[in-house]
Amino acid sequence: MLGEQQTGGGGPHPAAVVLGVFCTAVTFHLTYRIVNDEGATNAAAVGYLLPVVSVLLGAVVLGENLSARVVLGMVVVLVGVGMTRRNGAAEGTSATADAPAARRASLENTRRPPVSPGRGRRTAS
Looking at CB atoms within 10 Å, which of 5, 32, 54, 105 has the fewest? Predict the structure, then answer.
């Protein structure tokens, strides 16, 4: 009745397993997609943004206080991430930005057309 906790089905353990497996799978998929599309440097920059987003969500959702030191730290992180993103754009090309395109180009150059059976083989007469 009042004060009693009701848990569904098998309790908290199956829920933790499902959430752990699902969240891990989604995270790995998104990480590899970012690495494939944007390159390793830009994927690493996403990791630097996690504390900034966490602090902002803590302030907005939970009402946590933001001190000047915390805001300054967030500014430093954002400036650093901005510098990594701007560096490749300012030069026109960068090794990290071109890595996925270069890899795709090398894969396309190494593909060979399929050989149909019987072609290219010598048969004894």
Answer: 5
**Does 13 map to a domain?**
no
Q: pTM of this prediction?
A: 0.50
Q: Cα separation of 48 and 53, whole Å?
A: 10
The count of structural domains within the chain is: 1
Q: Could you give the 3-state DSSP secondary structure of residue 8?
A: coil
Backbone φ and ψ of 77, nearest 5°: -60, -45
109 pLDDT exceeds 60?
no
Longest Cα–Cα distance in the chain: 93
Q: Which domain holds residue 68?
A: 39-97
Residues 22, 92: Cα–Cα separation, whole Å: 39
